[in-house]
Amino acid sequence: MRGRLVVGNWKLHGGIAQNAALLSALVAGWKGGAGRDLAVCVPFPYLAQAKELLAGSTIAWGAQDVSEHGAGAFTGEVAAGMIAEFGARYVLAGHSERRQYHGERDEQVAAKAKAALAAGLTPIVCVGETLAERDAGQTSTVVSRQIDVVIRALGPSMAATVVAYEPVWAIGTGRTATPDQAQEVHALLRSRLASAGAGQVCLLYGGSVKGANAASLFGMPDVDGGLVGGASLDAGEFLTIGSA
Question: Any idea what the Cα angle at residue 38 is, between residues 157 and 179, rounded to 5°?
Fold first, then answer.
């Protein structure tokens, strides 16, 4: 359901000592409140550490990817049930870097989201266009295609997901969609989700979110929070975003 949600994606960063310092600072500094949630999605090896250090706090944790398979001869894959055993709440599905570097297709992203839901996890389904697609005027077509595949696969269960719009051209580049650009795509997503009975899904914006721009982005009517990359590795900055 809608509310303020800010999720940190650590990507390929972390270490036992630096994780401990970051997570401890987040626990000490996070005030939270009704309808305002904070979470971190960490690399698989650190799920146990996240569980240990965040247990008893109001900060949730999760993973950055999940297999569409429950078990089997899939070396290197991690099943949703395994992630759930670490007390995780969230898992990313279809992050743009997985689509770009690992060739993940829309149908595979949908299958991963379905597997996550079956294990009691909340998938954060990621969609977004490249710079070339935006410049070609294809943003609506690309984003609609990506979310429609997931909607068809999940049916009524779509209402139990979170959706993140992350324009690929704004991830790690320092470029950020303007609040109006973000709102335009979020409104499109809200409309398509509403048509599927999932209009109250929490919609996050991801793409160079910082403490300085979070409030203006989150102030848009259909932007419910953020999926934060690099800024989530700085406790002070991340807490500022979470409180925006």
Answer: 85
